[in-house]
Write a structure and sequence with these properties.
Blueprint: H1 8-11, H2 28-32, E1 37-41, H3 45-51, H4 56-76, E2 81-88, H5 96-115, E3 120-124, H6 132-144, E4 152-159, H7 161-178, H8 186-192, E5 203-206, E6 225-228, H9 238-249
Parallel strand pairs: 1-2, 1-5, 2-4, 3-4, 5-6
């Protein structure tokens, strides 16, 4: 797949990379109580492509373009951390042709957002499952954006919630054997997960009408509110985000109390 042109942010109509362009106007309940961390299952790119008579890779590209827009919308309403599930371990079983193009698109998306010098980026997932070039792009983005002042963006690529828990269990077992006085607790287990140091998601949004987590952030999303949006991800708009946030604002989060 040929690389995207250097003027990619301008030619696709994306927001200016220097900061958010969306507003909170008309949504006071969102502005008053935004969730701290919103996690997105960006689903429906392939169905969008087929519905519009386009090749599958165009659906993935439209989905990546919309992630670029959505990070601006999230920042505009005060969301400090977002996580975007771009590729599951199950997705790695897709055809070689589709997977190659999808990985190229994720790699370019990573570089574009990192190049703004605004957001802090982090990779969630197993880099050993990814092509060396994509793993390097994700690692470089995490390193070069570490001291940026914008919100935190996490890309879940080659990610499985079950594998995340298994990896944490292995680490905990090793620490329990090798470290005298080590205590196995909810806190120590959370610190062994790939999301160590990040707040748990308050809200999980899944596009495309599917109503399941599909193994996404199984430990971390235990107390999250779940919002299932019927639109396919490339068609997801700022208004759809505001509807999800209004839903969240109207929930009574008692945490069992």
């Amino acid at each position: 797949m040929s690389p995207l042109p250097r003027d990619y942010p301008d030619t696709t109509g994306l927001p200016d990379p220097s900061g958010p362009t969306a507003t909170r106007e008309g949504f006071p309940q969102v502005a008053n109580n935004p969730p701290r961390h919103v996690a997105f299952i960006v689903d429906g790119n392939r169905r969008w492509a087929r519905a519009h008579g386009h090749p599958v890779e165009q659906g993935h590209q439209e989905g990546a373009d919309n992630v670029c827009r959505a990070v601006h919308w999230c920042e505009a309403v005060g969301i400090e951390t977002t996580t975007w599930w771009l590729l599951s371990t199950d997705n790695l079983n897709r055809t070689t042709a589709e997977l190659h193009k999808l990985l190229d698109i994720i790699s370019e998306l990573t570089r574009r957002l990192a190049a703004t010098g605004h957001w802090r980026m982090r990779h969630l997932g197993d880099p050993r499952l990814l092509p060396r070039s994509l793993a390097a792009a994700l690692s470089e983005a995490e390193t070069t954006t570490r001291h940026n002042r914008g919100p935190q963006i996490n890309f879940a690529v080659g990610y499985s919630g079950r594998e995340d828990i298994l990896a944490a269990a292995r680490l905990i077992a090793h620490q329990a054997v090798t470290s005298a006085g080590f205590s196995v607790s909810e806190r120590s287990f959370a610190q062994a997960l790939s999301t160590s140091g990040l707040p748990d998601p308050d809200l999980v949004i899944r596009s495309s009408g599917e109503q399941r987590l599909s193994g996404f952030m199984l430990w971390q999303a235990a107390l999250a509110e779940l919002y299932f949006c019927p639109v396919l991800w490339p068609d997801f708009t700022q208004s759809d985000l505001h509807r999800a946030l209004a839903f969240y604002a109207n929930r009574q989060r008692r945490f069992g109390k």
